[in-house]
């Protein structure tokens, strides 16, 4: 892992920086192609490992993981749509507690699910809970941090400027079995940009280790020359102000360095998808205690 260095208050902080490869200019833009290609490249990591695929959808990713040698468990709100009878798909609602014991998995794959979740902090806490110490979660979502989406949000508060903003007509779907709002399929209502994901993960005991590249969105690429200088300037000013005026904290330089890295990353600013890999660092209760200094503080989920 690359190392960075930040000078603050006459001290050097040596920081474990997030790995962010360069954006991809070729290949498919479809996450159904991008994620399988990533998993195949990482096959050695999955052989013999316990892997949870949630939400599993039709099961294509779970089947691939099985073929790669993983001991895969699938789970979804609508298991009736799962099409691989050799793999059990366990009914589960990501708005509630996952039906798995603590520390059950080495990896969790959460593909295109977080943007449907009203309580994303709870989602990260559950991913952390079912992961073993040092385990990893790969979370994918449409890239709400790229420049096209930022412009779309400025114009219409929508995911894309050719679409209406999320609404109760276009953005929900319910099967016949739906009994409560938790059983309703909520569309792309809950945008999850990379810095929001980062802080929710930190509060849950996870840390970002890598942002994987996806093919560039060419609208975002075209906007880059106009936005990038202002992004760098605004980021520098905000970081300088925070270091100067914020409450004393030994962690602030590290946190600000990660935020600056994400804010200026071309992969983040131009990629069509966010593919973020997290590692379990602490249990949620320990992470909250570390951040607040309250060793007896109880958390809602662990």
Please explain how this structure is put together:
The chain is of the alpha/beta class and 302 residues long. The protein has one domain (16-217, 272-292): Rossmann fold (3-Layer(aba) Sandwich), CATH 3.40.50.150. Helices cover 36% and strands 21% of the residues. The protein has 10 helices and 11 strands. The protein has helices at 31-41, 43-46, 60-67, 120-130, 147-156, 194-204, 218-245, 252-264, 266-270, 284-292, and strands at 3-8, 11-16, 50-53, 71-76, 89-91, 105-111, 131-142, 172-173, 185-186, 206-212, 273-280. The strands form 3 sheets. Strands 5-4-3-6-7-11-10 form a 7-stranded mixed sheet, sandwiched between helices. A hairpin with a 2-residue loop joins strand 1 and strand 2 (11-16). The radius of gyration is 20 Å and the shape is globular. The model is unreliable at 1-15 (pLDDT under 50).
Q: Which ranges are low-confidence, i.e. pLDDT below 50, for 5 or more consecutive residues?
A: 1-15
Into which percentage range does the β-strand content fall? 15-25%
Under the CATH scheme, which architecture would be assigned?
Answer: 3-Layer(aba) Sandwich
Q: Assembly state here?
A: single chain
Give the SSE order as H and E letters: EEHHEHEEEHEHEEHEHHHEH
Strand order within the widest beta sheet: 5-4-3-6-7-11-10
Question: How are the elements arranged and paired?
Answer:
Layout: E1 3-8, E2 11-16, H1 31-41, H2 43-46, E3 50-53, H3 60-67, E4 71-76, E5 89-91, E6 105-111, H4 120-130, E7 131-142, H5 147-156, E8 172-173, E9 185-186, H6 194-204, E10 206-212, H7 218-245, H8 252-264, H9 266-270, E11 273-280, H10 284-292
């Amino acid at each position: 892992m690359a190392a960075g260095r930040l000078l603050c208050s006459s001290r050097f902080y040596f920081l474990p920086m997030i790995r962010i490869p360069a954006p991809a200019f070729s290949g498919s833009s479809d996450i159904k192609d991008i994620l399988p290609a990533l998993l195949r490249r990482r096959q050695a990591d999955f052989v013999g490992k316990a892997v949870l695929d949630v939400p599993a959808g039709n099961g294509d990713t779970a089947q691939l993981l099985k073929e790669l040698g993983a001991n895969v468990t699938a789970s979804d709100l609508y298991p009736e749509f799962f099409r691989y009878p050799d793999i059990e798909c366990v009914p589960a609602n990501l708005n509630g507690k996952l039906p798995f014991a603590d520390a059950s998995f080495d990896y969790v794959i959460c593909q295109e699910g977080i943007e449907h979740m009203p309580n994303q902090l709870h989602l990260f806490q559950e991913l952390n809970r079912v992961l073993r110490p040092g385990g990893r979660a790969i979370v994918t979502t449409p890239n709400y941090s790229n420049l096209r989406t930022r412009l779309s949000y400025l114009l219409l508060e929508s995911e894309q400027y050719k679409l209406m903003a999320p609404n109760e007509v276009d953005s929900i779907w319910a099967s016949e079995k739906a009994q409560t709002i938790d059983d309703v399929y909520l569309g792309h209502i809950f945008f999850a940009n990379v810095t929001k994901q980062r802080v929710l993960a930190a509060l849950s005991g996870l840390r970002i280790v890598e942002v994987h590249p996806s093919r560039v969105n060419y609208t975002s690429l075209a906007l880059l020359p106009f936005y990038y200088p202002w992004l760098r300037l605004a980021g520098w000013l905000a970081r300088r102000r925070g270091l100067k005026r914020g409450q004393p904290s030994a962690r602030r330089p590290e946190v600000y360095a990660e935020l600056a890295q994400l804010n200026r990353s071309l992969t983040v600013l131009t990629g069509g998808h966010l593919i973020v890999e997290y590692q379990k660092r602490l249990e949620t209760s320990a992470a909250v205690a570390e951040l607040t200094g309250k060793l007896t503080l109880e958390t809602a989920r662990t």
